[in-house]
Structures are given as structure tokens and as C-alpha cells.
Design a protein that fits this description.
With about 325 residues, the chain is mostly helical. It is built from twelve helices and no strands. α4 crosses α7 and α5 crosses α6. The longest helix has 27 residues. The chain starts with 13 loop residues before the first helix and ends in a 9-residue tail after the last helix. The relative contact order is 0.23.
Amino acid sequence: MTASTPPSLVDQNPLAAIALMSSAMLIVPVMDIIAKYLSTDLPPLEVTFGRFFFQFLICLVLALATGRFARLRGQQPVINYLRGIFLAAASLCFFTAVKFMSVATAISIFFVEPMVLTILAALILKEQVGIRRIGAILVGLIGAIIILRPNLAEIGLVSLLPVATAFLFSFYLLLNRLYPVTDGLLTIQFSAGLSGSLMLGTALVIANLAGFEDMTFLMPSGSQVGFLALIGLISFAAHGLVVAAFQRGSASLLAPLQYIEIVSATLFGYLVFSDFPDGPTWIGIALIIGSGLYIAHRERKRKSKGQPAIAEV
């Protein structure tokens, strides 16, 4: 999950853009693998809080070290904090999902996001959706159903959490469309880390006071704190790589590379947890990827005709 960025004066370099984007997609699932590993002992809510808290700390240290602390408020602080709340909620849904299902499966289901975004843009922004994109949406949803079917039977409604993640991230992207990003990377990351930490920290306090099972704070060990810090660092670094990639290459060039994340998640999931998607799951993945690429193609066509397109950067 990545965010929209302001225009850049960096020279275009397609090869560098591909290398940067590919690197980001290769390391993002590492964060999810660590979250799944930690969730065997720590509540997903606490793991998600750690991810945003350490992201906040990293940004704060960098801002103080580079003399940019005064810029952290940004030009649109309320919108920046709202972005962080959407991202924190989406991350919580996803980290909870990977506790019960493989990372590759969860990521594959999450990639219904372009379909969800298209539907929400039509309903909320009143954008026109042609019959071909409707067809692509239906194909992608069929792929998601194929993947979800055995998971629904085995683990229940929790298998729908990656779909909830897709909805929350789509609302995040719609917010970027309504209020284009005007602040720099450090400001955006700091705002997300701060607002996410406040929201999730409040949820942790409420959960402890109410005695909610599986949400009660557990004191992490030294190694667990290290892994939580690593999650925050990976999130910060991956976002930076994506921003750098989109500064050097077009969305049409880079959008298909996001599906490298499925390959990376499958590889790391197999090496760490011996998880590997079965045949029907790969069919569902293929349908989701195909429909996602077609929707991206239709967005490029809209943009070439001078019509507004939602950029997922």
C-alpha cells in the first residue's frame, strides 16, 4: 500500500524507475511476513501499532537530524492525518488477516483494490464506467471468490479482511483524488505515523480497559521490539522507493510491477511458513491480475483522452 506524491522535477529514467519499483515490491511482503510471525505471540493490533509508532519515530529522528522539524506540520495537516487513519485501519485489517491465512493469499485478495476503487469512483465521484471495465470488475471478483471459497470454509469471515483492506485503501486513494498531495515524503510519512499511532494506541488502551480477548497489550521481548522497529523501517523505505520510482517513470510503466508483490509474498511465505498457493488459488490470482491490468489500461486511455484518472502511486 503506497501513496500519491506531488509532482517531481527529477529527470525521467525508466530503467531506474523499474529497478526502484521492483525493489519496493520485493521487500513489502517481508513486512507482512514479520507481522505474521509476530502475531503468533502478540495481538495484531499491537503489531500494527508498532509499525506506525516506529515509522513515526524514524520520521521524527530524520526531521530533527536534517533540520526539517518545522515542515512536519505540512500544508494540509488535517487531510494528512486522515490519510494516516485510513492507512492504519487498512494495515490493521491486513495484519489481522495474515495471522490466519498465508501472506500470498491475503495479498492476492487485496489486489481486488483496483476493482473496488473503480466502483467507488463511480458511486462517489460519479465517474463513468464502461461495459468493458464492468466486465473486468466481474472477472476480478470471480477470481477473488475462487481464492476466498476454501478460506471462508476454513477460517470464516476473517478471510474477508483483505477485502476490507482493499476498501479502506480505496477510500485513501479517493481522498488523494479529492485533495491532491502537496507535502513532501517525510511530512506524509510523519503524519501517517503520528495519526496511526494515536488511533491504534487509543484502541489498545480501550481494548485493555474493556478486557477484550486477543487485543490486550502484551509486553514484547527485546527481539520482538526489534522486529516491530524493522516493520516500521521497511514501511518507510518501501514508500520511499515507490515515490522515487514514480518520480522517474510513468504510472503506466510501473503499475504492472505491483504484482511482483504476489511473487515475493509466495516465495517468503514458502521459505518461512511452508505456505504455497494451490492450483485454484493461482487461477484466482491470474484472474485478479488480468482484470487489474485491464482496468489500469482503461485508466490510461481515459487519461490520454483528457479525462481524469485516479493515480495509484
